[in-house]
UniProtKB/TrEMBL annotation, chain A:
The lineage of its organism: Bacteria, Bacillati, Actinomycetota, Actinomycetes, Kitasatosporales. It comes from Streptomyces tabacisoli. InterPro entries: Bact_solute-bd_prot1, SBP, TAT_signal. Signal peptide: none annotated. Transmembrane segments: none annotated. This is Sugar ABC transporter substrate-binding protein. It comes from the Bacteria. It holds the Pfam family SBP_bac_1.
TrEMBL record, chain B:
This is Sugar ABC transporter permease. It is a multi-pass membrane protein. One of its GO terms (biological process) is transmembrane transport. It comes from the Bacteria. The chain crosses the membrane at residues 15-36, 75-96, 108-129, 164-187, 220-239, 274-294. Keywords: Cell membrane, Membrane, Transmembrane, Transmembrane helix, Transport. It comes from Streptomyces tabacisoli. InterPro entries: ABC_transporter_permease, MetI-like, MetI-like_sf. PROSITE patterns: ABC_TM1 (PS50928). Residues 79-295 form the ABC transmembrane type-1 domain. It holds the Pfam family BPD_transp_1.
Length: 419, 307
């Protein structure tokens, strides 16, 4: 058979059109599973910075016998990717999530996993388990705990005759004394702390973002007072701003650009490597008579998508991985990066967390840890963070700004309670 | 017989038309018009974390947006940005085009040199601006240069008083797009008939400013209108450099938040408020359409030249 030029072009055009259409959304991650029995499950993780994590989670998945689990390691804006994928049938069966958020739960995008934690619920760190609960049920299994704290350089504080700050006022004074032409006193991120601090200063002032009965927790003059002190750090020019790497990376601290830095537990190995013993860690210092030191904690959770055709198989797999296989949980938390296992029993027996700054960090997490409440919606967070930005950088009146945030957050709380 | 052959040919032609045009039309429908229509539909619903909502809220999303300080201030940010970037790009690209047009040698070389930044990604350029040129520490390029003349280091992207971040945002876009608009002006310049310049010379016009003002600039009117139009639309759609210069993992500062960044966080961020985001997209599209049509009418775009 001879093919005419026109025929060839037409076939080409038609096949490329088909190719184009079939390329849309075909990669669900479910194909390519092994030759095991049971369903094929797709599991999504965000791209961890630590080397070896990807291989580790693939190893765990391969060791599961009742389903073929294919792991997708997803770089880029993971939260946005999962949020969009959960709206379609091409999303994952099981996935880790920075939440799940209240809208995800109310939108019935994630399955109830309460049963999976039966008998071991109390062994999970309650501060991080609390935001996974809604309506008396649990919607995600905490994987590992991350926490934030204040790193300080002992030698620089000694040289300046400054003691590790125990109150917010002392932190403001210390940052001022430690600032000179080469080194700044404190690094709270390139936006002067508006992004990373979040509710931390409010908890340090003895308040909270949302109360247990679901009301605004910072409608109090102490809130404006605490935030006003962060503004003072900015106007005193004690804050490092515009560093090449932001607060989550310890380079500004290890390179001597700042004497104190707010960062996370994950930075500890790098700081230890660079500075040896010449550093200490602290919680965010308390403010006022009712205040208490505060340490933000959070945990990515493993969740099951309700759009999955294999919900039960997904639940069985998550129970196996994040409840039964404690050896994998410990490996995941401590062998690649540096996190606290979500299970109290595992955190207690981990050798790497028993001494020095790591032990301090674990103690602060237990004694002063707070997690962002589930009812603190993204809209509330944006309104609060915008206000914080205006207070710190533009000198807006904290009272006025917070009044606006209280109104917005109240409206948000009303909205989510109606559902 | 002939009629049948003619009908067959006609049918064949229609078939071939759809074989070649069909995929594009299908793509346009699936990827442009359906999402557009869906977005308009979503804007009338409470669509948190869903694209198939069932709670009709009428115009609530629209009124909520117009009452929201963050959205209205994002429009204000756009206005400030336009005020800076449109005249700056216009002047820079016209100046470059005039310079390159006058060159007798190596014109192609300089044309390429100035055009080359247009090939660079906005994301890459924004990161270079943020991390090497305008970082706030003493070893950033801009701060090193300021250090030579004894000026203190400046936190370019972190201060609102003075708002140095505008300098960073405007210069990165200026660098990226001036070369492209220079090419448009060059094409415009090359279309001007040399006889006009000869006539002007005969009439005693002085080369330089006088010729530019009375011959070159008026002759570039059509190009100028198109350039300004494109600049304004592009400014409205600004996202990449703003997002990459100012956002971090925890969010985005309220100052210098253009409408698209606002909508990105509303609809695609943790909020996943697709109803509100869609209402914003509809409002933004309407604003761009009104501004474009208004501007086109004002400048007489597409109207036949008199005479």
């Amino acid at each position: 058979m001879t093919i005419s030029r026109r025929g060839l072009l037409a076939t080409g055009a038609a096949s490329s059109a088909l190719g184009l259409l079939s390329a849309c959304g075909s990669n669900t991650g479910r194909d390519g599973g092994g030759s095991k029995g049971g369903p094929k499950l797709s599991q999504w993780y965000h791209q961890y910075g630590e080397q070896g994590t990807e291989q580790a989670v693939k190893k765990y998945a391969a060791a599961y016998g009742k389903a073929s689990v294919s792991v997708q390691w997803r770089p880029g804006n993971y939260d946005q990717q999962t949020a969009a994928a959960l709206l379609t049938d091409s999303g994952p069966d099981v996935f880790e999530v920075n939440g799940p958020s209240l809208d995800m739960i109310q939108g019935k995008q994630v399955a109830d996993v309460t049963d999976l934690l039966k008998g071991v619920e109390d062994d999970f760190n309650q501060a991080v388990l609390a935001p996974k609960r809604y309506d008396g049920k649990i919607w995600g299994i905490p994987q590992v705990i991350d926490m934030q704290m204040l790193f300080y350089r002992k030698s620089l504080l000694d040289d300046a005759g400054v003691k590790p700050p125990a109150t917010l006022d002392e932190l403001v004074d210390a940052a001022g004394k430690l600032t000179n032409s080469k080194v700044k006193g404190l690094f709270l991120g390139n936006d002067a702390g508006a992004g990373v601090l979040g509710g931390t200063p409010l908890y340090a002032a003895g308040l909270e973002l949302v109360t247990e009965d679901g009301a605004v927790g910072f409608d109090d003059p102490a809130a404006a007072r605490a935030l006003g002190k962060i503004r003072r750090l900015y106007t005193d020019k004690s804050l490092l701003l515009g560093a090449p790497a932001d607060w989550s990376d310890p380079s500004a601290f290890t390179q001597g650009l700042t004497a104190m830095q707010w960062s996370g537990l994950w930075a500890l190995p790098a700081v230890q490597k660079a500075l040896g013993d010449d550093f200490g860690v602290l919680p965010f210092p308390k403010d006022g008579a009712r205040g208490k030191p505060s340490v933000p904690v959070g945990a990515y959770a493993a969740a099951v998508s309700t759009r999955s055709k294999h919900q039960q198989a997904g639940k069985d797999y998550l129970k196996w991985l994040w409840v039964d296989r404690t050896d994998y949980q410990e490996d995941f938390a401590l062998k690649y990066g540096f996190h606290i296992p979500a299970r109290i029993s595992l955190a207690k027996k981990a050798a790497a967390l028993r001494e020095g700054a790591a032990a301090d960090a674990v103690r602060y997490t237990t004694d002063h840890g707070f997690a962002q409440p589930l009812l603190w919606t993204p809209a509330a967070q944006t309104a609060y963070q915008d206000a914080l930005n205006r207070i710190i950088k533009s000198g807006a009146n904290p009272d006025t700004e917070l009044r606006k945030v209280v109104r917005k957050v109240s409206a948000e709380l009303d909205r989510v309670k109606k559902k | 017989m002939t009629r049948t052959a003619g009908r067959l040919r006609e049918r064949n032609r229609a078939l071939w038309f759809w074989v070649f045009v069909g995929p594009s039309v299908l793509g346009l429908l699936v990827f442009t018009y359906v999402p557009l229509g869906w977005s308009v539909w979503l804007s009338f619903f409470d669509a948190h974390n869903t694209v198939t909502p069932d709670t009709f809220v009428g115009l609530d999303n629209y009124t909520a947006l117009l009452k929201d300080d963050a959205f209205t201030s994002s429009l204000w940010t756009f206005c400030v940005f336009t005020l800076f970037i449109v005249p700056a790009t216009y002047a820079a690209s016209l100046a470059l085009a005039l310079m390159v047009n006058r060159l007798r040698r190596a014109q192609a070389f300089f044309r390429s040199v100035f055009f080359l930044p247009a090939a660079c990604s906005y994301v890459v350029a924004a990161l270079i601006w943020k991390m090497s040129i305008f970082n706030g520490v003493r070893f950033g390029l801009a701060n090193t240069l300021l250090g030579y003349v004894g000026v203190d280091q400046v936190a370019w992207l972190s201060t609102t008083d003075p708002p140095w971040y505008w300098l960073v945002i405007v210069t990165v876009r200026l660098w990226l797009q001036a070369g492209f608009y220079m090419i448009l002006f060059l094409a415009g310049l090359q279309r001007i008939s040399p006889t006009l310049y000869e006539a002007a010379a005969v009439d005693g016009a002085r080369p330089g400013w006088q010729v530019f003002r009375h011959i070159t600039f008026p002759q570039l009117r059509a190009t100028s209108v198109a350039v300004v139009l494109l600049l304004v639309i592009n400014a409205f759609q600004a996202f990449d450099e703003f997002y990459n210069l100012l956002s971090d993992a925890r969010g985005y500062p309220p100052y210098a938040r253009p409408p698209l960044v606002y909508l990105y966080y509303t609809a695609l961020g943790q909020g996943q408020n697709l109803g509100l985001g869609s209402a914003g997209a509809v409002l933004l599209a309407l604003i761009i359409a009104v501004v474009t049509v208004g501007q086109a009418r004002w400048f007489g775009l597409g109207r036949k030249e008199a005479g």
